[in-house]
Amino acid sequence: MSYEHVFYLFPLVVGMVLSNTAQATAADEPLVFISAFAAGEEGAIHAYKFNPETGELTQVARTADVEHPFFLAVSPDNRYLYSIHAPGKFSGKDNEFVSAFELEGRTGKLKLLNRQSSLGTASCYLDIDDTGKAVVVANYTTGSVASLPVKADGSLGEAATFVQHQGSSVNPKRQKEPHAHCSVISPDQKYVFAADLGLDKIMAYKLDPQTAKLTPAQQPFVRTIPGAGPRHLTFHPNGKQMYVINELKNSITEFDYDPATGFLTEGQTIDTLPPDFTGVSHCADLKFTPNGRFLYGTNRGHDSLAAYSVDPQGKLSLIEIIPSLGNGPQNLAITADGKYLLCANMPGNNVVVFAIDQQTGKLTAVGEPISIPSPSCIMIR
């Protein structure tokens, strides 16, 4: 081949390499779905591409016609997204819905498949099992949990199980009745655990993913500290411990988890606020890094993030408490590589990206916060 042929082919080869590199980079960029908790046209699910090199979010799509989408869940195969849908008024007198959407590839666009009743109001949490066949929902105001089967096309069937919680606890303003605040499927897919803020209990149910049915577990519940107000819970990546963030007492409680029986045994409780803080604040969410070394929780009122290190036995030690850079940090998400934490400041109308120091667990804000109305939930896929 002559020099001239090489010279003229070189730009083509370079162009092909750059094009393939760009495509690979684009494919490596996670999709981030963020719900805008609002009525009417402002209620929407926003989709962003996330740059893993810079931490930058770039909006690629916006799906409307989904009001008050307080919480989201994405199927394990990344083909379907499920969202709360509360038309008109959130926590009104009418039951709300769970919407099923099909993801249009990696575009961020969503196609509505169908909606099914959540059988409650102030529907506030969703989870989906690893087979993608069962969705569970928690209803805060009416204090109930429901499970819905997922059909072959990703759409939802009518609820397979409905469980109405009963009782109260010690706080006369917030705990006169049950308030189920989350419904989380255990890592082994055997159980659903529901933190009920109104009862100061973690309720436990056996899960049959094939039928999406729930039945009472052998240990039907464990109590938390009176007045704690358990809100969200999460499992350590090792599957041996479960952690509950207590909205009313501003603390995190660890439970040892026995996969063989589903039993929970209470362990450490640690504060999320500085000891000298005297204002009003309420916890919301907590998330682990994928390697299980660090745990983060949110303080709404103090408007901060509490960072903890986790020892081999699951004990937490406070690293730092830093500003969330917005009012009311509501929800957290951590990237699959454990390098970034995203924080949704719901009344602050922004989402902030923080870089996670891989050695210390400390957080550093990256770039400028993105503006979004009432962000309530972040899902990274």
From TrEMBL:
Keywords: Carbohydrate metabolism, Glucose metabolism, Signal. Belongs to the cycloisomerase 2 family. GO terms for biological process: glucose metabolic process. Pfam families: Lactonase. This is Lactonase family protein. It comes from Gimesia benthica. Residues 1-26 form the signal peptide. It comes from the Bacteria. One of its GO terms (molecular function) is 6-phosphogluconolactonase activity. The lineage of its organism: Bacteria, Pseudomonadati, Planctomycetota, Planctomycetia, Planctomycetales. GO terms for cellular component: cytosol.
